[in-house]
Amino acid sequence: MKKIKLISLTNIIIFIFTLNTFSAQTQNTYTMQRDTVFAKGEKIDTGNFTGIAYLNVLIASDKENPTAVGNVTFEPKARTKWHLHPAGQILLVTDGVGYYQEKGQPKKILRKGDVIKCPANVEHWHGASADTYFVQVAITNNDKGNAVWLHAVSDEEYYK
């Protein structure tokens, strides 16, 4: 009788452990899927970024609608060069922690839910913090021309 109870108890413990492991795996998968609004996209190789970043073009601008919408994912420390937009830009932060800085202004820390309005023709840069990724949806009006890319953000500027 004791042997049957011991076997039953062992089976119950194994069953509970299996359920807990499955539940944890399911929960982690759900969290990752829930936090990812759009796919990461393709690696950006334009030379206008420091570090690794990805772009998923959601809407390309055209003559009928000159507004481009893209999901940009920055790996830690990745950032744009200094640049400006002739008709401005809007950034919607969807995940991670990042930075935004306009020329001559202090750097701002960005978190999920933040919205940034980049004024027309104002030099700025944006990207991930040093230790976490950063995801943004960039809404850019190209009616007055495309972005004007300038010089790289130095490490001194980035860490300031």
UniProtKB/TrEMBL annotation:
Domain of life (superkingdom): Bacteria
Gene3D superfamilies in UniProt: Jelly Rolls
Annotated signal sequence range: 1-26
InterPro entries xrefs: Cupin_2 (IPR013096), HNL-like_cupin (IPR047263), RmlC-like_jellyroll (IPR014710), RmlC_Cupin_sf (IPR011051)
SUPFAM superfamilies listed in its UniProt record: RmlC-like cupins
Transmembrane segments: none
Domain Cupin type-2 stretches: 72-132
Keyword line: Signal
Name of this chain's protein: Cupin domain protein
Organism (species): Chryseobacterium polytrichastri
Lineage start: Bacteria, Pseudomonadati, Bacteroidota, Flavobacteriia, Flavobacteriales
